[in-house]
What we know:
Blueprint: H1 2-7, H2 19-29, H3 32-39, H4 46-56, E1 58-60, E2 75-77, E3 80-82, E4 86-88, H5 101-111, E5 115-118, H6 126-133, E6 139-142, H7 148-160, E7 165-169, H8 179-183, H9 196-199, H10 202-206, H11 216-224, H12 237-243, E8 248-253, H13 256-264, E9 269-272, H14 286-297, E10 302-305, H15 312-320, E11 325-328, H16 330-361, E12 375-377
Parallel strand pairs: 4-5, 4-11, 5-6, 6-7, 7-8, 8-9, 9-10, 10-11
Antiparallel strand pairs: 1-12, 2-3
Helix pairs in contact: 2-16, 5-6, 5-16, 13-14, 15-16
Family: Belongs to the FMN-dependent alpha-hydroxy acid dehydrogenase family.
Protein name: Alpha-hydroxy-acid oxidizing protein
Cofactor: FMN
Amino acid sequence: EIYLHGLLEERVPGYPTDLSALEDAAREVLAPGPFGYVAGAAGTGATLRANRAAFDRWAIVPRMLRDVSVRDLSRTVLGTRLAAPVLTAPVGVLSIVHEEAEPAVARAAAALGLGSVLSTASSTPMEEVAAAAGDGPRWYQLYWARDPEVTASLLARARAAGFTHLVVTLDTGMLGWRPRDLDQAYLPFLRSTGIANYLTDPAFRAGLAKPPEEDPFGAVAHWAGMFSNPALTWADLAWLREHWDGPVVLKGIVHADDARRARDAGMDGIVVSNHGGRQVDGALGALAALPGVADAVGADLAVLFDSGVRTGADIVKALALGAEAVLVGRPYVYGLALGGEDGVRHVLRCLLAELDLTLALSGHASVGELGRDSLVQQGV
Ligand code: FNR
């Protein structure tokens, strides 16, 4: 399609297809605060770099003459049928990059048959995003608030809005040390409607001294003291089970023992993730954790993966190392910044096209054929 438009000397779709060029293009259209918030990482950026380096340590070994003329990228993950094993990762406060924000992401993903996970820190109330997802899958990410009544209230609302799967983020008991945001004194939650789900929540409002309209600063301070809870332990998962009757996926697992604990606690899945390198500086690259975790629990739990996925080849590697599906973060946010829903669709379509080509050219007709023997480890 792109080549055909090239014949007509139109540069369509008008966005870069190389995802690192996409980051540069997004830098041009975003103010320094929002760009730094999205692109930034914890501390020196060592974990962000480790995420990419971990992909470079694995190489795909293409196989020939295996009839790859008909291909199947689809996969069912925890009962959710996906056209390809790709979901958009939960990213908060998307209104700071484009006014179309979270509903645009939900629409773009649903139109392509992909999954989409809505952040608790959404800048759009969850009911509106649920409506935008239409018939598409509805997964909700929870930042587990300090006040159990607020958490229970958010979960009840998510259920009522038709969200079926819960992704509980465990690696953000507090925000990481993020020099780019600190240097610019930029925290989007203080500047946008990024706490929409809290501000519209009855249990949250009940705890406020004054209504958020009268005292927006007080509401934000209340939110900041509430948004996540560093005191949580494995024992608290029982409470979660009582308040959510669908599948529960724990996000932020990078140790095989934690994966086993998730299984023993009756969880349905995990996301092997280091939050895109935004929390612990000097942590291991997320892909380096994947094989050990998949070996430990892959037969018992749905193992998903994120942090550093930028290309179709990356998706092939993560699937070959034991992920059932991947989540993609920053790339689609850059697409949103550049072109709203159209930009998100562009990024997701590029990823799917490259996944399809890489799969075929390496001799696989379906994502189910990928395994550890599809790769070799290379010394870098
Ligand atoms: C995030 N991430 C995140 N995760 C989450 O569970 N809830 C959230 O609200 C957010 N917010 C958020 C904002 C921004 C700007 C980014 C970049 C990331 C983490 C996200 O879900 C995912 O783990 C990473 O983005 C994956 O890494 P890549 O694909 O960005 O390298």
